Amino acid sequence: MSETQTEAHARRGEIECWLTDMDGVLVHENRAIPGAAELLQHWRDADTPFLVLTNNSIFTARDLSARLAASGIVVPEDRIWTSALATASFLKQQKPGGTAFVVGEAGILTALHDAGFVMTETDPDFVVVGETRNYSFEAITKAIRLINAGARFISTNPDATGPSPEGPLPATGAINALISKATGKQPYIVGKPNPMMFRSALNRIGAHSHNTGMIGDRMDTDIVAGMEAGLHTVLVMTGISDRAEIERFPFRPDEVLGSVAELL
What we know:
Blueprint lengths: L2 H10 L4 E5 L5 E2 L2 E2 L3 H10 L4 E5 L6 H10 L9 E3 H12 L4 E5 L2 H9 L3 E2 L6 E4 L7 H12 L3 E4 L5 E2 L6 E2 L1 H12 L4 E2 L5 H11 L6 E5 L2 H10 L3 E5 L6 H5 L7 E3 L7
Parallel strand pairs: 1-4, 1-13, 4-5, 6-7, 6-8, 8-9, 9-12, 13-14, 14-15
Antiparallel strand pairs: 2-3, 10-11
Helix pairs in contact: 4-5, 4-8, 6-7
C-alpha cells in the first residue's frame, strides 16, 4: 500500500458521517449492488449519520425510498436528499414564500410546495427546471417567455442524459440548454456538481465537512463537488467511471474502490 493510500485509509477512520450517491453506487438499473444493503445496515446499527444523494428530481424522497426497498435497499425517506429538495431549500433561503413556474414532476413540485412556494404562470419570481419525462413544448415556451420577462432561471441539475434499460434519455441539462439557447441566459444549477447540494446535505444531518465522506461513481459530479466541499472522496467503479476515465481529470479522489462492499 502506497503512502498516499495509507493516508487515505487513515483519514477514512476519522469519518463519522457519510454522503453517498445512489445510482451506480447502491443500485444499478434497479438492482442492488453487492455490499450496498450491508453497508447501509452497518451505518444504521452504528448510528452513523448518512444521506443518500441523487440529482434525480422526478421522484419524492418517499417514492425513492419505496423504489430502493423494491431493490432490497432499506433507506428511510428522511435519509434521502434529492436535487429537488436542495433546490427548494436554496430558494426558500433566497425568497421565503416566493412564487415559481415549474417544468418538472412530483419531486420538485412537492419540494417547492413543502418549502412554502406558490406555483404560478403569472410573473413568477423563479422559473425552475427539473427532470421530466413528459416534455411539453408549451411549458418550455412559457418558461422562455417568463425568463425573458425577468423571472430568475433555476435548475435542479445539469445532467444532459440519464440512463434507461434501452439506452440514454435526454435529461434536465438538455432542456436547460434549449432554454438557454432561446433566452441567452444560463440557469443557476443547485444539484451536483454544485457543492451547495453537499453543504445543504451536511446541514440536514448536522455534519461537518472535515469528518464526512462522499461516495460516488462519477468524477465530474460526485468527486469534484465532494472535493470542493472539503469531503473525503471515495470513487467506486460500479457506475460510470473506469480507470481510463479517472485519468482524464486533473484531480483525484482520496480513494478508488471496486465497490461499496470494500467499505465494510
